[in-house]
Amino acid sequence: MFTLRSSDLVCPVTSALSHQTSDIMSEVSEAIQAKCLAFGDRIIKLNDFLLKEAANKKPAYKIVNGKRVYEKSIPVHLQAISNLCNQLLRAGTSIGANNSEATNAISKADYKSKSYIALKEARESLYWIELLYRNDYLSDVQYSSIHMDCEELVKLLVHRCKKLDEQLREEKK
Asked: pTM of the entire structure?
C-alpha cells in the first residue's frame, strides 16, 4: 500500500525559494493581508451604498402630453456612479488578491511582481476615491476615512517593495 506523506509533496526548488522569501513575507504579510481584506470589505460596502444612494435619486423623466414619461435607459448620473464604483471595486479588491498571490509566490521575482501589482492597484484605488469625492459622491467624512485606509495600505506596500528591492540588491552582490 502506498502512503503519501506531506513531505512527499514538497518540491526541493520551491521549498528553498519559499525559505528564502519567508523572511520577507513573514514580517509584514499577515498584517498587510488582514488590512487588504478589511479594505476590500469596506470597498464592497461603499460600492453597495453609493449605488443604492444613486438609485434612490428621482429617476429622469420627460413631460409628454402632460404626463411623466420615465426614461427607459439608465440615466447618465447612474451610469457615471456605476462606472466609477465598478472601477473602485475592481482596484480595491484586487489589492488583496494580488497580495495573496504574492505571499504564495513561486520565486522572488514572482513575489516582487505581485507585490508591485498590489501597490499599483492600491494607488489606482486612491485615484478612484479622489474622483468620487471631487464629484460629490463621497462626503468629507467618508472620503477622509476610506482615503486614510487606502493610504495606509499604500505605505505598507511601498515599505515591503522597498525592503524586497534592497534584499534582492544585496543578493546580487
From this structure: 0.75
